[in-house]
Amino acid sequence: MAEHIARHSPLGGFAARFAAATRGSGGAVRLAELPYPAQINVRLDPKGPAADAVRLALGIALPVEPNTAVRGGGLAALWLGPDEWLVVGPAGTAGDLESRLRGAVGAYHAAVTDVSAQRSTLLVSGPRSRDLLSHGIALDLHPRSFGAGRCAQTMLARAQVILTARDERGPGFWVLVRSSFAGYLAQWLLDASSEYTAPGYAAQGCSASQ
């Protein structure tokens, strides 16, 4: 008899605490997990035929400008290096997305690898999201420097992450972190957000804009 294996997120136990922090800040910061997104690592020559084949298969082109991201059709392609990208899709689509990419590159010189289990994904959003992340990151997160369409591999609170700015419904970021560091980073974010959840903060400061 086959044994059913349940899938558990490293961040599964943080949902209630994230929700409480979000409520406590009056919406100044929002913390949430984006569970189980598809994550496919792609390596190829950006000037070769494989890149064109991937563009046709996904409906979006792999970005060639360093530290940029392209979105479309429910997918995001994040630049990780001159010949490396991370393609992110909705939960439950990893198998299909990997198959599409493998079919597209065919016999071309390229590598397509499902790395969905490698990282957990956090959403950090709200008017104070940049302030919150700036407590533990060396990047300039001002919209002029790191606005929509930007991404970076960097360190956040001494944890290696992929950070990308999202552009829907106001300021916000995806934080992709190694699953083994997910609990640590979640706790750090909760601790760092405490100044926005202090009594009276929601009434006094949550309307501030950046």
From TrEMBL:
SUPFAM superfamilies membership: Folate-binding domain
Source species, domain of life: Bacteria
Full protein name: Sarcosine oxidase subunit gamma family protein
Species the sequence originates in: Streptantibioticus ferralitis
